[in-house]
Each structure stands twice: as C-alpha cells, then as structure tokens.
Design brief:
single chain; mainly alpha; 13 helices; globular
C-alpha cells in the first residue's frame, strides 16, 4: 500500500474511532479473536470451491475490468471535450461513469492479487475502508440511476421546460446530495464491524470485504448489523426503485398519449439506454442482496461470489457500450474524435 493510501486510511480510521493519530497503532485491539489476540488481518479466500480455477476466471474478469475502465474514461473525456454534450443527461452519465470507476478500482486490483499471486491477506483497517467505499458508491450508483430516470421524465413530459428545470446548479446539488446520502448511511457499517469479536476464523469467502460476508464471521449476534443493512437497502435501493418506477409510469402514460407513431418511437428510444443500464445494474445487485440474507444453503457459494463480482464488473463495462451505441450524440462524437486523429497522422507514416 502506498504512503498516500496509508495516510488516507489513518485519517478515516482516526475519525471513526475518535482517536488521535498517535493512538492509531492500537486501534486494531478493538477486534479480537476471542482469545485476547488482536485480529490484525482478514484472509480473502477468493471464489470458494473454485480456487483451482482462479487463474482462468481472472482472464474474463480482467478483460471486463479493462474494457470498463477504458470505456468510462473515454466517455468522461468525450463529454468533457464536446461542448454539445454539456447537458443534464450527460452530466448524470459522467456521475455514473465516475461511480463505476471507483467501484471497480476499489475491489478488482485486490481480486487480481488473489487470482494471480495468491496474496489473500488484507489488513483489518484496509478491509473496513474497502467495505465503506464499495457500499457508499454502490448506493451512489443506484441514486444516479434514479436521477437519470427523473431526467428522462422531465425531458419527455416537460420538454419545453427541460432547460429551466434541470439547471447546472440543480444537477450539482442533487449529485452532491446523492453522494452524501450514501456516505452518511454507510458510515455506521465500519463502527458496527469494529465492535465485533471474531472467535472462529478470519477467512472471508469472498474477493472483497462485503459487509455481510465480514459480519458473518463474528461469534456474537449480528442482528443489529443485519437489520441496519436491510434498513439502508430499503432507504437507498427501495426509494430509488420506487422513484424509477413512478418516473417510467409517467413516461409511459405521456408517450402513449402521443398521436404520432414516430414521436412515440423517438420518445421510447431516448429511454432504451437507461433501461439497459438499470437492468444491468439491478439484476446482479438483487441477486447478491437476497442471496446474503435469504439464500442460505440453497445457492452455491461460488455462484453467489461470481454474481457479486459481476455486479462490480458488468455495469462499468456495459454502460459506456450501451450509451455509445444507443445515443446518437455520443456515437457521432466518437466518430469525430477518431476522424480528427486520422487527419492528424502525417501522410506516408
């Protein structure tokens, strides 16, 4: 871990423990294994039952991660440089791309260390930081998808007032509120995990520090964590899905009322990319959520962990592709970018 990462972790953990940096070296004493010995690290075991296939599994995972990072960085660059794309829909798309980049980068490098180098150890404090980042930004992604649904609702139902309703200051405010909502609601997770005692094992059957995967190692009651986790899921995911559902109900009602078939087709066409993004994001998210809490032994552990990883890999990979294919403005901007690069190459080379 780099010096910058250590400084950031120290600051974060000093904050959640209300300690001074001088006392930080003792902070791990709060978590014990039941024998009085401090729990200093966890072991991320990767994909349970498929340890022998880690190398082969890593190739599609790495390909998806690489495509996602390149695609989202490219999308951010195109929206930043193209004046025509400085509109609410694309600002929300930028938020989605940033969220996808953070989600993938906070987990996948460690997963590749497990797959390629068999480096399974993760510091107790690093685990807490990773948990906080992953869950904060998964909550933010859900919020951004909800904001994009509201954007489509305003664009289709109030097209003449679109520019006056969704102003740049409003977009900045709702984006900030979405991030703060996730950051504040997820903040108790590290507090709760720190107070637990781990008396059986420190081996996490996962590729990253998922909240429920960690608390299941505790030897005491986890009812408070489970209930709070369910509450947060309802406050974030439940609220966002409700808003998305209402938005699309109103969109459908408005589109059906259009007299022209071409107008109806065009209105639905502006929503297809967003509907694909919702499907790609929420399908593995629902599977992971319900598998942790209600799956029991009916779902094979390796299926659950693979789906949890796909939740962090599929949306970042698919969103730039879907929006690039379905959105005319982005497609034209990409073509202009490549044609500009070709004209800059000197003849004869």
């Amino acid at each position: 871990m780099s010096m910058a990462e250590n400084i950031l972790m120290d600051f974060f953990l000093c904050f959640i423990n209300f300690r001074s940096p001088d006392d930080f070296s003792l902070s791990n004493m709060a978590a014990t294994n039941g024998t009085g010995k401090p729990l200093l690290e966890f072991i991320l075991n990767g994909i349970p039952g498929l340890e022998h296939a880690h190398l082969w599994i890593s190739f599609p995972f790495f390909s998806m991660y690489l495509i996602g990072m390149v695609g989202n960085c490219g999308l951010l660059y195109i929206i930043w440089t193209e004046e025509a794309l400085h509109r609410p829909m694309y600002f929300f798309l930028c938020m989605l791309s940033i969220t996808d980049i953070v989600m993938g980068t906070s987990t996948m490098p460690k997963a590749f260390c497990i797959f390629w180098l068999n480096l399974k150890e993760i510091d107790f404090n690093s685990c807490l930081v990773q948990m906080y980042i992953v869950h904060t930004f998964t909550g933010m992604e859900s919020g951004v998808l909800m904001l994009m649904a509201l954007d489509r609702f305003v664009a289709i139902c109030y097209p003449l007032r679109y520019a006056t309703i969704l102003t740049n200051p409003l977009i900045l405010k709702v984006g900030l509120v979405t991030f703060i909502r996730g950051a504040v609601l997820i903040l108790p997770f590290p507090f709760l995990v720190r107070k637990m005692q781990y008396c059986n094992t420190n081996v996490i059957a996962h590729t990253y520090c998922d909240h429920m995967a960690v608390v299941k190692l505790a030897c005491g009651s986890i009812h408070v964590d489970a209930i709070y986790g369910l509450t947060v899921a309802l406050l974030i995911g439940g609220f966002d899905i409700f808003c998305i559902t209402v938005s699309y109900f109103m969109i459908l009602k408005a589109v059906v009322g259009l007299s022209s078939k071409e107008a109806r087709s065009k209105a639905f066409g502006t929503c297809t990319a967003h509907i694909c993004a919702i499907t790609v994001s929420y399908t593995p998210a629902f599977f992971t959520f319900f598998a942790h809490r209600f799956g029991g032994h009916s779902i094979a552990p390796h299926v659950h962990i693979i789906m949890a990883n796909l939740y962090l890999l599929l949306p970042p990979m698919m969103n730039p592709i879907v929006y690039g294919v379905k959105t005319k403005e982005i497609r034209e901007s990409v073509l202009r970018l490549f044609s500009k690069e070709k004209t800059m190459v000197p003849h004869g080379h």
